[in-house]
């Protein structure tokens, strides 16, 4: 089983949106039995909470299932458990390294580094623009699935 973890700051806006989006892509490609998907936040601010209303609304607009998305915090154990740890922006990566007490690792990547344009996923908690975030995550998630297929399937 290939395990993919999306990580942001709060785990209520970007990473749960990426989790739901990527799980939907995996399902559409018939890979559910080979890839598991989860998300976490580097902060403990929203542990136990559902995603932000804006994230739930846009997932609903695209008919993507958002059941069972509950905020949790990223832990050191996640580093061992997951094969791909995918941050949304540079500060997420820095926070992950801080929690792990180590700088960089090939399995820790920033999603939009897979694209050839902007590298950080804007945080709709501050921008209010959930559509912009959805579009970038959609593009990044498709490229991530291609990368995983090439490397592992
Ligand atoms: P996220 O966005 O990291 O994409 O989930 C945020 C959610 C909550 C907060 C900041 C960013 N907050 O300050 O509570």
TrEMBL record:
Enzyme class, broadest EC rank: hydrolase
E.C. number(s) listed in UniProt: 3.1.3.48
Domain (Phosphotyrosine protein phosphatase I) ranges: 2-147
Superkingdom as given in the UniProt entry: Bacteria
Record field: catalytic activity: O-phospho-L-tyrosyl-[protein] + H2O = L-tyrosyl-[protein] + phosphate
GO molecular function terms noted in the UniProt entry: protein tyrosine phosphatase activity
Annotated SUPFAM superfamilies: Phosphotyrosine protein phosphatases I (SSF52788)
InterPro entries per record: LMW_PTPase, Ptyr_pPase, Ptyr_pPase_sf, Tyr_phospatase_low_mol_wt
Record keywords, A-Z: Hydrolase, Protein phosphatase
Assigned protein family: Belongs to the low molecular weight phosphotyrosine protein phosphatase family.
PANTHER family attached to this UniProt entry: LOW MOLECULAR WEIGHT PHOSPHOTYROSINE PROTEIN PHOSPHATASE, LOW MOLECULAR WEIGHT PROTEIN TYROSINE PHOSPHATASE
Descriptive protein name: protein-tyrosine-phosphatase
Protein source organism: Bacillus lumedeiriae
């Amino acid at each position: 089983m290939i395990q993919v973890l999306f990580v942001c700051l709060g785990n209520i806006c970007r990473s749960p949106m990426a989790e739901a989006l990527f799980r939907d892509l995996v399902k559409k490609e018939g890979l559910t039995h080979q890839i598991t998907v989860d998300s976490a936040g580097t902060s403990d601010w929203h542990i136990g909470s559902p995603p932000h209303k804006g994230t739930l609304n846009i997932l609903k607009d695209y008919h993507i299932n958002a059941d069972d998305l509950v905020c949790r915090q990223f832990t050191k154990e996640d580093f061992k458990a997951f094969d791909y740890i995918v941050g949304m922006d540079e500060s997420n990566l820095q926070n992950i390294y801080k929690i792990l007490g180590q700088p960089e690792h090939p399995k820790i990547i920033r999603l939009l580094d897979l694209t050839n344009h902007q590298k950080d996923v804007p945080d709709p908690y501050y921008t209010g623009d959930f559509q912009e975030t959805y579009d970038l995550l959609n593009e990044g998630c498709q490229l991530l699935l291609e990368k995983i297929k090439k490397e592992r399937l």
